[in-house]
Design goal:
The complex is a heterodimer of chains A (192) and B (189).
Chain A: E1 14-17, H1 21-32, H2 35-41, H3 51-68, E2 72-78, E3 84-94, E4 99-106, H4 116-131, E5 136-142, H5 146-154, E6 158-169, E7 172-182, H6 183-189
Parallel strand pairs in A: 4-5
Antiparallel strand pairs in A: 1-2, 2-3, 3-4, 5-7, 6-7
Helix pairs in contact in A: 1-3
Chain B: E1 10-13, H1 17-27, H2 31-37, H3 47-59, E2 66-73, E3 79-88, E4 93-100, H4 110-125, E5 130-136, H5 140-148, E6 152-163, E7 166-176, H6 177-188
Parallel strand pairs in B: 4-5
Antiparallel strand pairs in B: 1-2, 2-3, 3-4, 5-7, 6-7
Helix pairs in contact in B: 1-3
Classes of the chains: A alpha+beta (192), B alpha+beta (189).
């Protein structure tokens, strides 16, 4: 069972932490130079960004966290050496309706396929459902991101919507899939 | 060429900020209208504040990703509602939101006529590939109207919002450019 001693920000091999403006911006800048990664993560056009641009984004992000109160953002770090390996967030929260969107990515190529995404999603779900007390969460995935779909399905997400041909890339149209998971569905199968 | 701004029952205009604010301040008091149109909690804003929003919109000038229309009936020239488009040019998609604030014009085909004009604008003027919308499951009138206009139901986010103590689904619909073109050919034959 969950209890109040459960550490929300500590996983098996990873932890959630705040932004380190100087160090993280250098690493995130590198990730933006990986177009394949960016196209998995975002529907906005991929483009290489400098560390200075990333730092500006961090400032905007922290301002939004402070003012809008509908966004929670975490840096995912390896417990062994504290290096940045990804980002996780709950976005666009509607408090009156208890819903929000999850966004998660493991940025470094060498950190993929090691189970970090699974651990991060487990922690993010625990945060969304047991700390924010949301009723449901959604995740948007382009049809070509099979890794993300497999991960979501593993946690019991159901594909609820298929927005047909909503994305234009590589000279063709792609579907955008919306996955959803309800708090009680998560609680039924969540393992501590 | 077809008149982009004139349908069978309504026409698209853009009313002055004062006129729009006067109407909106009246429409916002109808919470059923608000709850059909939005998922955010209903809120009351002053006429001054609403006017300032509209003034800011016109001061911002031409934004290729944002379009607003006011809607007037052809028969009585009554200002009855609005229709807005949020465009994503990168992925060639538009989202539409619309409302009829004057309740005596509900359920009489005005909404469908607005939507047909909107589709014509999106596909024949903006040249986009896709038009999308969302609606609440407790709005079957809107669902029927959109189906009639050729939208396909693409899924529902389960128990998405809380209304009067019950969780209700949000429905998502879309129509593709090719589907709209095919419908037009059908109508012209």
């Amino acid at each position: 069972m969950f209890d109040i001693q459960t550490q929300l920000y500590e996983g098996q091999d990873i932890r959630f932490g705040p932004i380190d403006h100087e160090k993280d911006s250098e690493i995130e800048s590198k990730w933006t130079h990986d177009s394949e990664f960016m196209r998995m993560m975002e529907t906005a056009p991929a483009r290489p960004m400098s560390a200075a641009m990333i730092r500006k984004q961090y400032e905007k992000l922290e301002k939004q966290v402070e003012e809008s109160k509908n966004l929670y953002h975490f840096m995912i770090r390896a417990k062994t050496d504290d290096r940045l390996i990804g980002t996780a967030s709950v976005q666009r929260i509607e408090w009156a309706n208890g819903n929000g969107f999850l966004h998660l990515g493991i940025g470094g190529a060498e950190d993929r396929r090691k189970g970090y995404g699974t651990q991060a999603l487990q922690m993010l779900l625990r945060f969304a459902f047991a700390e924010l007390n949301l009723f449901r969460v959604s995740a948007i995935v382009p049809e070509y991101n099979e890794t993300a779909m497999a991960l979501l399905k593993k946690f019991g997400f159901i594909q609820e919507v298929c927005r047909r041909k909503a994305l234009e890339r590589d000279g063709r149209r792609w579907d955008l899939c919306v996955f959803g998971l309800l708090n009680d569905e998560w609680r039924d199968q969540a393992q501590v | 060429m077809k008149d982009l701004f004139r349908g069978e029952l309504v026409r698209f205009t853009l009313e002055e900020p004062e006129v729009r604010a006067k109407a909106e301040v009246r429409w916002q008091r109808d919470t059923e209208f608000n709850r059909l149109a939005d998922s955010d909690p209903s809120q009351l804003s002053s006429e001054k504040k609403i006017k300032e929003w509209f003034e800011k919109q016109s001061e911002d000038g031409f934004n290729p990703e944002r379009y607003s229309f006011s809607v007037r009936t052809l028969a009585e020239d009554r200002y009855i509602g609005f229709l807005g488009l949020w465009v994503n040019l990168i992925h060639s998609e538009a989202w539409v939101g619309l409302g009829i604030g004057e309740r005596e014009f509900w359920s009489k085909g005005y909404g469908s006529d607005m939507m047909k004009l909107c589709q014509q604008y999106v596909f024949a003027e903006l040249g986009l590939q896709r038009l999308s919308l969302g609606l609440h499951e407790y709005n079957p009138r809107a669902l029927r109207s959109y189906e009639k206009c050729g939208f396909r139901l693409e899924g529902r986010t389960r128990k998405d919002i809380m209304r009067e103590g019950s969780r209700t689904d949000t429905l998502w619909m879309g129509i593709l450019r090719d589907e709209w073109l095919q419908m037009q050919q059908g109508e012209n034959q």
